[in-house]
Structure formats: C-alpha cells, structure tokens
Amino acid sequence: MPSRGPAAAAGPIRVNEEPRLDILASFLGGLGLFLAGVHGLGVQVQQMAGRRLRVAVAHATRGGLSAALSGAALGALTQSSSAVTVISASLVQAGTLPLRGAIPVVAWCNIGTAVLVLLAALDLRVAALWLLGTTGCALAFAPGGGRWKSVLGAVFQLGLIFLGLALLKAGAAPLGDSAAVRAALLQAGHGLAIPFALGAAMTMVAQSSSVVTVLAIALANVGLLDGAQAGMAVCGASLGSGLSVLLVGNGLRGAARRLATFQVLFKVAGAALLALPFLLRHLLPDLPAPLSEIGLPQRLSLLFVALQLLPALLVTPFHRFMPALLERLSPATAEEALSLPEYLYDGALEDVPTALDLVAREGARLLGRLPGLLDDVREEGVGSPLPREALSAASAAVERSVGTFLQEILGRGCPREELERALAFENLNGLVSALRETVAEQAGVLEAIARRGADDPLGGLVGPLAESLHLLLTELHEAALSGDAESAATLSELSADRSVMMDGIRRRLARAGVAMQDGLDLLFRATSLFERAVWLIRRSALLLPRTGEERVSEAVPAGEDTMPLAAE
Fold first, then answer.
1. Euclidean distance between the first and final Cα of the chain, in Å?
2. DSSP states of 146-160 as a string?
C-alpha cells in the first residue's frame, strides 16, 4: 500500500473516496447502534420493572444515603439524567415522592451516567460479541417470556451499546487522515465556542450527555479535536443536558417543576465551574495542563465524572435547605396551591385511625370544590378562583395524593377493625374523581347550550339542570362535613333515580322542535350526564363516614345497580 506523503495529500483524492465512504459507514453505523442500544436499554428496564420500579424508588429514597445510591443506580441503568429527572418529577407530581427525597436522587443520578463514559476507554468488541451471541440465542430459542425475557433484552441492548462503541472508535480513527476533515478543522482553528455550542446542541437532540461525551472522546482520540476543544464539548454536553430538562419542565408544575429547576441549576453550575480552566488555558497558554501524564481519553472521562460529582458534593450539605430555595426561584401559583393536600402528611401513617380521619377531612375538602365547577353556568354563581379546567386538574392531583396515601395505609397492614373504613374511603375517592369529571363535562355541555341563544328550545335546560345539580353537590359536601347519618339518608332520597324524568325531558324537547343533529346530541349528553352525576352522588352518600350511627345500608334498590352511561 503506498504511503501518504504531502504530494499524495495535495493530489487528486478520487482513489480514496470509496474507503472514505466505508469509514463514514462504520462511524455512522457504530453511532446508530450506540444510540439504539442506549434507548433500548432504558425501555427494557422500564418494562422489566414498570410500576414496581416506581414503588421501589419511593421506598428507597426515605434516607439521604439510600436516595443517593438509588439515583446513581437509575442513572447507570438509563444512561440519561434527563430520564431520571422526568421519572422523579412524575413521582413528585403524583405525590409518591416528596421533593426533599427527590433532590438527592436527581443530584446523584448524574454520576451513574459516567459508567458508560468510563467504559468507552476500553476495548469492548469481544465483550459485545459474547453478550450479543449468548442473549440473542437465548431470546431466539428460550420458551416463554415475562421478566426473564426483559432481563435478556436489557443485556442484549447492553451488547449493542458495546458493539456500537467499538465500531464508533474504529470508524473515527481513519477520519484523522481525511484531507476534507483536516481542512475544516484548520479553517475552524482552535476556538472553544463552537465545540461548546455543538456539545450542548447534540445533547439536547440525543437526550444524553454521556452519548455526546463518548463521541467527543472518539474524535479527540484521533486528533480531530484538541484537548481544550474536546473538554469544552464535554462541558457543553453537560449544559445541554440541563437545557433539555428545562424544555421538559415546561409541562410540569409545582414541586415537579422545582425539581426540574434544580437539575438545570446543577448542570449549569457544573459546566461553569469546569469550563473555566479551559478558558483560562486558552487565554494563558503557558499555564500547565492538569493530569497531562495520562492519556487524553482518560482525562476527558475524568472530566465527565467531575462534572457530575463536584456539584453533587457541593449540594449535599444543603439538601434540607434546597426546597425552600427552589420555592423562592419557582413560587407556587394558585393552581399549584390547590393541587396540594391540606391534611395529609407522612407522620400520620403511624396511627391508622388518625390517618383515616385526615383522609375524611381531605375528601370533604374535595367535595366542597365540586359545586364551584358549575358557577360559570349558574345565574347566581360566585365565580371560581380558577378556570374550570384548572380547578378540575388541581382536584385530580389531590385525588391522586389521597389514593397514594390510602394505598400506603393498606400496604402497611391496616388493622382489621379499620380495614372496612379504609376500603370505603378508597371507593369514595374513586367516586369523587368520577363525579368531578362528570360535573366538569356537564358544565361544558350547558355552556354550549347557553351559547345557542335564549330562543333555542334547549335553553330552558341550563338553569334547572345547573341549579339542581349544584344543590345536590352542596348537600353532599355538607353531609360529608357533618358526618350525620340523617343528612346522608336525606341526600340518598333526593338523589333517587332520575332516568324516567330525563327520558321525559328528551321526548318533550324532541317534540318541541329540537331537530338539528347537534341539538339532539347536546340534549342527550346533558340529560345523560345529569343522570350519571346524580347516580354518583347517591353512591357517594352511601359511603360517607358517619358519627355515632351506623352507615346507611349500601344495598342499592333494584333497578339502580347499574351506573348510567355518560354520552359518548
């Protein structure tokens, strides 16, 4: 094979086009396998654990050390701090994980992502072939599936990651001899801003700073990036990871948004602290390079570890103060305040009767919000502090917190004498959720009818349906507050079956001239939703806690054991 001298480099390069395409194919193929393996590993881990993973995380984050270890393990499994932040934020938003417990998880998940970067410095081709061969045969010939199939799938994806790394390094090595690549680098000079910006942008696309760091190591190893440029690219990747969390955080609220804010600050602090030495050496070239006695790939790997470790160490002593600081940076809105339970707290779980009393008070608070969903369609409505959709969403968040609290009570071993009460509260919470959705939908339908004008035959429905339903919901709230069996019995009589009445209204209005298809649809939806709401109110009244007297019999009279279906 002829040697490559300056003359050859200056001459025509057509003879090198085919090898160069092979090199590019190897590079892109390795990158594709690597990205697919990282994504597939995260998917397999989620399938392998599912809800159990979330419950395990919630239990494992009760202490500071266990929370940090859990975060590092999740980071190593998913290879994406953004993914761990989103998972933790969803647990926080659901009320399963408090913000104080989620902060160390997010802080230390970053160090778990360094595993992949450290492995990038090793020759993984043989290990990749062994993993792919054994797990591939097992997946092809092993019968059944279930959990073991998910485990084998995760190991197979790990083999893809290793093979992708090997191909990536093999494809990147000959790029250093490319005249076009070297000309582009010569044109770019030794500037640091472009590698920093590219590292941030690529991380926002790949959703993993470890992926971009591995790519930077591969390019630096063959001389396509110098040490300072590769270091700035790694710092930019860390910043890009924080920016990607910021984009995801736009859809979060409350404590979950504060957790995303914490991760952004964490990444910004790490990138700012560790990019500073590269900027100083760029301005003062005579400064000695740190760790110059070891190879460039190893230095970049240690830089990535430092980006994750240094901010975590700085933040650890101040974990207890972080929630208050984050609340100052991201203050709660009115909707967020209404999304939080007022009476529930973890300490109450130690005493089950007290915990159930608090659940009853929280349930009554939720019932007190339901009449306000109809204020916009009532003549005497006082108006809600929030739009109907926002108020409904806030109540849904509290309902989830109540459900999680009740599951914790039952999971800890509820005493036999309190078991029936706990199960009744769990059923009541489900009914309150269904009732809230039904009332909110009914208010929307009545608004649509009101917009048709006073001359429309359906216009006479809005006032009576809204006022009747508002009255029943108010009575339900008062019965929940009083705990009076007589009030619950009276409400049960008031919320008797209304199907005959609603059917008569539908027939009368149809004869009165409601002939348009949209009018008939609104008529059917309004009356059907009213029937369903009344049925849910009756069922809820039967489950309300009593004081001093036995609960009203939960037996439903014949003909009332089927829940009316809301209009499609």
1. 75
2. THHHHHHHHHHHHHH
User: In the structure, what pLDDT confidence band is assigned to residue 39 with cuts at 50, 70 and 90?
Assistant: low
Burial 336-363, CB ≥16 within 10 A → b, else e = bebbebebbeeebbeebeebbebbbebb
Task: Show Cβ contacts of residue 389 under 8 Å, excluding neighbours closer than 6 positions.
Answer: 440
According to DSSP, residue 376 is labeled: G
Give Cα separations from 167 to 22, 25, 125, 303 (angstroms): 12, 10, 8, 23
Give the global pTM: 0.54
174-232 pLDDT per residue, tens: 655 555 555 555 555 567 788 888 888 877 766 667 777 877 887 777 677 777 888 88
pLDDT reading at 529 higher than 80: yes
Q: Which amino acid would we find at residue 434?
A: A
Residue carrying structure tokens 């926080």: 92
Question: What 8-state DSSP symbol labels residue 346?
Answer: G
- pLDDT: is 346 or 309 the higher one? 309
Contact 215, 202 (CB under 8 A): yes
Q: Which letter does DSSP use for residue 379 in this model?
A: T
Name which of 131, 97, 436 is nearest 259 in CA terms.
Answer: 97
Task: Please give the mean pLDDT across all residues of the chain.
Answer: 74
Look at residues 350, 404, 310 and name the one whose alpha carbon lies nearest to residue 107: 310
**Over 483-547, what HEC string results?**
CCHHHHHHHHHHCCCCHHHHHHHHHHHHHCCCCCHHHHHHHHHHHHHHHHHHHHHHHHHHHCCCC
How many CB atoms lie under 10 A from the CB of residue 203? Answer: 28
At 498 the pLDDT is 67
The Cα 3–Cα 223 span in angstroms is: 19
Return all residues near 372 (Cβ < 8 A) that are at least 6 apart.
382, 384, 391
Would you say 37 and 157 are in contact if contact means Cβ atoms under 8 Å apart?
yes
Confidence of residue 441 (pLDDT cuts 50, 70, 90): very high
Q: Which amino acid is at 376?
A: D
- pLDDT at residue 557, rounded to an integer: 41
- Whole-Å CA distances, 26 to 31, 127, 180, 213, 346: 9, 19, 18, 19, 55
**Residue 254: pLDDT above 80?**
no
Question: What digits encode the pLDDT tens for the residues 18-38?
Answer: 445 666 677 678 777 766 776
- What's the token pair of residue 523? 């008529």
DSSP 11-71: S--GGGHHHHHHHHHHHHHHHHHHHHHHHHHHHHHHHHHTHHHHHHHHHHTSSHHHHHHHH
In angstroms, the CA 19 to CA 263 distance is 44
